[in-house]
Design goal:
heterodimer, A: 163 residues, alpha+beta, OB fold (Dihydrolipoamide Acetyltransferase, E2P), six-stranded mixed β-sheet, 4 helices, 20% helix, B: 359 residues, Heat Shock Protein 90, 18 strands, CheW-lke_dom (chain A), Positive regulator of CheA protein activity (chain A)
Chain lengths: 163, 359
Amino acid sequence: MSEALENVLEYEEDTQKGKYLTFLIGKEVYGIEIKYVTEIIGIQQITEVPELPEYIKGIINLRGKIIPVLDVRLRFKKEPMEYNDRTCIVVVDINDVSVGLIVDSVAEVISIPEENIVPPPEANTGFSNRYIKEIGKVGDEVKLLLDCNKLLNDEECENLLNI
Amino acid sequence: MVTQNPDLEGLQLDNFHKAARQLNKLTNELQDVVMSIRMVPLSMTFQKMNRIVRDMGKKLNKSIELEIIGEETEVDKNIIERISDPLIHLIRNAVDHGLEDAEERVAKGKPPAGKITLEAKNAGGDVWIFVKDDGRGLNREKILKKARVAGLIHKPENELTDKEIYSFIFTPGFSTKDNVTEFSGRGVGMDIVSNNISMVGGTIFVDSVPDNGTIISIKLPLTLAIINGMSIKVGKSRYTIPTISIKESFKVKNEAIITDSEGNEMIMVRGEVYPIVRLHRFYKIDTAVTDINDGIIVMVENDSKVICIFADELLGEQQVVVKALPKYIKKVKGIGGCTLLGDGSISLILDIAGLVDIN
């Protein structure tokens, strides 16, 4: 029995490995590992919470569970955009913390084989570079794969505290 | 909740409202009954202490008298389960650390038998539990020395108040005992005690007078789950104020406002002056209501300190289920949690104690 369960678990892990959910912010395509994603919901009423960094838009009521939402656009210091019917909230679960990520639109789930994933270029050209863990090549397109932990945790703040 | 559904707005539904009121009354009654089942007197927990005190007294060769006051005070069942162990620990501390030997006591001119008082009482929406002993009190110098060694002191020592120094005993791994005994000296106790207490939403305070004894006060909420709250509106956001802390609410005219040189606003009500906290300014919320004439003042009280909160309008009173803010959002000043409203939207619950302290 336990063996069978193990097999199932392994199987599950395998199906999720190498799969990425891609979404759009402006013109760029970003991807996050599918294992973090719990669900995708449309934009809903957000309750503002005062005193938070600008990119944390507030909290939402997800079937009785209260989760914070952060705007990935603002997180990357891009221009804010009006939410429309394409705007989605990607609910991710990282280390038992549920957070909603507001993205311009969700594209697709794709598999990227390991050999097509390369580390990001060294040159620190943009702000959002910091959150990019790897770069995936799909056909002749490039997807920026995000590091979820870094996305959520505010290094800037912590750095400031350490000074 | 149902009656506040936006779909019903503007409809003339006399019979429906009558029925809804009736249902509301019934559900309230049901809820009261359920809540009263959850409320349990503290006597069971307190009576356990008798035995602990007697056993420890025998082992340590101290004669101790335990006085129990207010054991009939009722607290939510969940809370009782959680505070039983911390209380045992506090009592053990009092017996082992606090009380002196009979000879030492006589030498100090105290009666040879030590006395421990365990007291519980209701105050507003809170329950207070005091553990008091008439022993030697906390050793300020020893705590300070240990804190210094452990690197806990972050400001000039002469600026530390006694209370701050005594609070060091809640730090993990802190013990002033040099040797470990059966009962104490491991330095884990008070840390766990304060953790357990804060887990149920309580706070713990310590005060001590050398050779006169130590008093540990624990403040607990009456219940964890449900509070009566007044919903208010500021801009697009809705906030809930626990009804228990509201003294009154009223409209004022601009002329009644006094402004000091730093722009702090105050209001004179029946000869007393209270500070005004404009929520929209405090939390930087956009709202159309910035004129004192248009909004409403809610006077709230905590620990006999009073402030006046300025909001756009009152939305009405209802019972709300308290939910914690997500962990990802760390502490926001003046906000104690959040709750879901009838239409699924979220209202933030103001932490009046916190607000009063800031202002």
